[in-house]
Amino acid sequence: MEKRNVVNMLLAMMMVVFPIFGFIYIHQDHVRQPQAQSGWMDLRSSQLHAGTVRLDGEWEFYSGQLLMPEDFEPAPDSGRAAPANGMLVTVPGAWNRYLNEAGEGTGYGTFRLRVMLPEAKEAVYGVHTTNIRMANRIFVNGHEAGSSGMPDTEPNGKLQGNIPYTGFVPINDDYAEIIVQVSNYIYSTGGMIGTLQFGEAKAIQNSRERAVYADVLTVASLVIPAGYFLALYRLRREERSLLFLGMFSFGAVIYVLTHGEKLIDLLIPSLDYGLVIRMQWISSALIYYFLLRYIDLALPGAVHRPVLLLVRLSTVAFIGIGIAVPTLTFSSWEGMVITCGLLVIGYVIMRMLPRLGTRQSHVFLTSVSVLSIIVIIVLHMMSLLGRPQFAALIPFEMFFFVAAQALLHAKRFAETTKESEELSQRLLTLDGLKDEFLAKTSHELRTPLHGIINMAYSLQQGAAGPVSAAQAAQLSLVASTGRRLALLVEDILDFSKLKHGELILHRQAVHLPSVAQSVVDVVALLQTRKEVRLVQDWPNGLPLVQADENRLRQILFNLLGNAVKFTERGTIHLQAEHEGAFVRVSVTDTGIGIARDKQEQIFQAYDQSGSSGAGLREYEGTGLGLSIAKQLVELNGGKIWVESELGKGAAFHFTIPVAAAEPVEAEEAVMEKAPLLADDTGAAPFIANPPKEEREGEPAHVLLVDDDPVNVQVLVNLLSLDGIRTTATASAEEAWLALSEAGPSLDLVIADWMMPDVSGLALCERIRERFSLSELPVLLLTAKNRPADIQTAFHAGVNDYLSKPVDADELRARVKTLLDMRRSAQASLRSQMAFLQAQIKPHFLYNALNTIISFCPVHPDKAMELLVDLSRFLRSSFAFHNTDQLIRLEKEMELVEAYLSLEKARFEERLDFELEVGSSQWVLIPPLSIQPIVKNAIVHGLMKRAAGGRVKVSVKESEDEVHVCVEDNGIGMRKELVRQVQFEHGSGRSVGLKNIQKRLLALNSTGLHITSSEERGTSVQFSLPKAGRRPPIEKGWREGPHESDID
Questions:
Q1: List-wise, which residues carry 4-aspartylphosphate (predicted)?
Q2: Which residues form the domain of 344?
């Protein structure tokens, strides 16, 4: 066996064997104690001044009698005799076996013992109770020594009590008569359960103090670790074992306070003893459960799942019993709790002992802690069962428990510290490698980047021949994009130099407004799509500043770039003020602002607090700009700070020392406001026309939605190669406006997922509220390619997606496929519209002709009118304009009126109709949009009734819309059919109402509104915007950051 295992086993043996030796010693001491016989105890040869004596042995007991001392003094003159029905019983022990024949523990009685003392001398003697159940009162030689509760012959829960106490009386005889009255009505067992100690006053007082001190020490030994474990758990939530160890300690505190000397009476003197009993029961159940949970979490695999589940259910049951069941009832089940506790202890010992020899120190220390707790529980149970001397061994076991826990957490702290140091060293190494990689990569990128910029500039200037205006604009865009990337490369290089102290400044007198103007010009070129205005405010007499001009320019560029990035629309102020030996420069914006708790972090490298604090991931950058600005300001002899409130913009201030040269006058006039937009009209949508070559047919129309102008221009160029007309917008709100204005003329929407305010995904969801997948396809561009992101996009109604960077040929192929799909869907819809004409079935013509023939002999004029109506109906039905998207209202009403006239002549009194049409017949509506509804009302509504009914067609106008309503009083429609027509897309057997519903939705209408009640009739309504108008667009349409929008 290895040396380590030998040491571990010796420690475990010492922890367990020491209490065994203590038990043997206490037992031998108990054997030496005198025993009462026949109600007498002889203490004449005992040294009472040296200690206390346990009054164990045979006592006299009088069941059903609460006797006073005078009852044992016979008075022959008065005829009073000695108490009868006395018996000898063994104390300590429960009185259930001799109190009554039923063996119940409730009742009352009197115990009596006479003690022979060493010699007759006046001395003060005392008694110390441990566990007399329940209410009790003690008399010594006729004097009341003490009481707990008040014994009574009738049940009275309020007078019950079992709190240990001491009592003292003077004795000058050679014997002492001790009478104990006891009554119990709230517990299943009663009597003198614990021993009664007797001795001189000083010895009794010492005995009481030792017992109280032992309990106080135990409580303190549990409270301190409990608080420590719970506080440690609050700091380290992942270690749940600390929580249950702390809860076990607190449960053990409640257990100790309600047992032994019952210190809870000192804390809450007026506490009802029934509540104390419930606390004893519940705390007994909880400590075993918390102990098992601690072992389960501290030593994974040590506790079997079924065992843990069984103990959990048992604990819940015990708690419910302790709360709801009377104490007299559940106290009879006390053996069940003890049995469960012993089973848990045995199971834990069985699982812990094999782990004492383990090589892992934390497993050994945890096992020692658990075994110490188990020994403590056993010792406490022994003291409660009439051996209070065992309580003296509890502090020894507490030492093992505290020492094991202290070593365990000290070792864990040392290991954690060592891991942190190793991790920190590794992170420092990785950080250095990262900086080195960034620096080398930036160096490698800088040369080709400058080559791209210079080549684009030279081509723009005509190095390879004359260029057109469009080509010059494209080359300028390439150059500006290259400059943006070059600035990022420079930031990375500068950060590396600053970190290693390699940056050299060339400080000189600098004219601040001139440097600032050059920065503003660059920022204006790089930012052309935002509604932001820049105001410069330079006071007269502003002195020169002492700074490195290039680095000052870099500071201003970083601060202005940060302001522009976080300001979608508004104003940015750049101003300065002379303050003694410094000039304070301020950059103030009206953007999203910075939370107060993030303002200290934003100047740290790679920090994203400015964007993450606002919840806007689309604004994130490298996180180097503000960090570099801060270091450059400090290197130039100034300081930088920020003032901001979330949602109210931010103000960055920094100071620069004044140069030693004489101040010069700045420009007299304050700089005018300079917009950051390409023009001052705002970021309106712009149209890119296809090449001038002749192309067959109408060109497709695609809506582009992207906040990056470079991406937009790339898409415009690619799509123009295929003759596609494009409308470009910079936000979802602009796209929705453009979509509403263009209406059905749009063939496709290409949107970027990540955009400010409203994402492309939210825009797609809004589009799907009005257009189906085939009516207006959506192609989503995204950097996301995880399956969950793709699934989210398709759920939102996206037809297809492309991952960035996009391959040009793949993009054109995807666009062509989606456009072909839409054309096929439109052709199918037109075929359905044409099929409506085919619904003039032969039997309708037969019925119409038969009706006309029947009128010829009797009413030839009426027959002539019906022939005219039939002619109008057939001419309108077969007209070619019925495949158009919109026709004049009067054309549709001619068809309706002709149809109604024919049906009226056929059904006569069974059909009645009313037409209510406004005077503005010039409004445009979809063809065959009213007549099929009227036909449906007559055929499926009115004629299903024997009496027929009435149909009413009304067309009304408002300022912006046309409202059409067809009402009948027929049999109505089932709710399922109404829901199918209004909300279900896709093809079906019905080409009537569903076809109308699809065409209305495609025309920016809200579709059919059907109100129907069976046997009462149906109302079908729809509204359309007048020609040349569009529905109102909600202003301020915004959304919060979508959960799936985070890369």
A1: 752
A2: 211-417
Q: How far apart are CA 584 and CA 565, in angstroms?
A: 23
Interatomic CA distance for residues 319 and 279, integer angstroms: 10
Q: Output the domain CATH number for residue 126.
A: 2.60.120.260
DSSP state of 840: -
660 and 517, same structural domain?
Answer: yes
Residue type, 528: T
How far out from the chain centre does Cα 189 lie? Answer: 52
Q: Which of 307-321, 465-479, 547-561, 887-901 has the highest mean pLDDT?
A: 307-321
Q: Domain check: are 174 and 216 in the same one?
A: no
- CA dist 504 to 494, 550, 624, Å? 10, 11, 19
Q: Which residue, 417, 434, 465, sits at the end of a domain? A: 417
**Are 992 and 862 found together in one domain?**
yes
Q: Which of 110, 114, 126, 127 is nearest to 41 (CA)?
A: 114
pLDDT of residue 361: 61
What is the band of 619 on the pLDDT scale with cuts at 50, 70, 90? very low
Query: How many CA atoms lie less than 13 Å away from 534 in the CB half-sphere?
Result: 26
The verdict on 592 and 636 lying in the same domain is yes
Q: What is the CATH number of the domain that holds 738?
A: 3.40.50.2300
Contacts for 682 with CB less than 8 Å, ≥ 6 apart: 531
Pairwise CA distance, residues 662 & 665, whole Å: 10
C-alpha closest to that of 652 among 564, 728, 713: 564
Q: Is the pLDDT of residue 741 over 50?
A: yes
- 3-state SS record for 391-427: HHHHHHHHHHHHHHHHHHHHHHHHHHHHHHHHHHHHH
What one-letter code names the amino acid at 577?
E
Tell me if 644 is assigned to some domain. Answer: yes
Tell me the C-alpha distance between 488 and 24, whole Å.
83
Q: What is the pTM of this model?
A: 0.48
In tens, the pLDDT along 77-112 reads 655 667 888 899 999 989 999 998 888 999 999 999
Joined together, the tokens standing for residue 1030 give: 């569009």
DSSP per residue, 759-806: -HHHHHHHHHTTS-TTTS-EEEEES---HHHHHHHHHTT-SEEEESSP
Tokens of 751: 């949107």
For residue 646, the domain's CATH number is 3.30.565.10
Residue 681 pLDDT: 33
Q: Which amino acid is at 279?
A: M
List residues bridging with 178 in a β-sheet. 113, 140
d(CA 705, CA 722): 19
Q: Domain for residue 25, yes or no?
A: no
Same domain, 621 and 567: yes
Domain count, the chain: 5
The set of residues, in sequence order, having a beta carbon less than 8 Å from that of 1043 and lying 6+ positions away, is none
User: Are the C-beta atoms of 21 and 42 separated by less than 8 Å?
Assistant: no
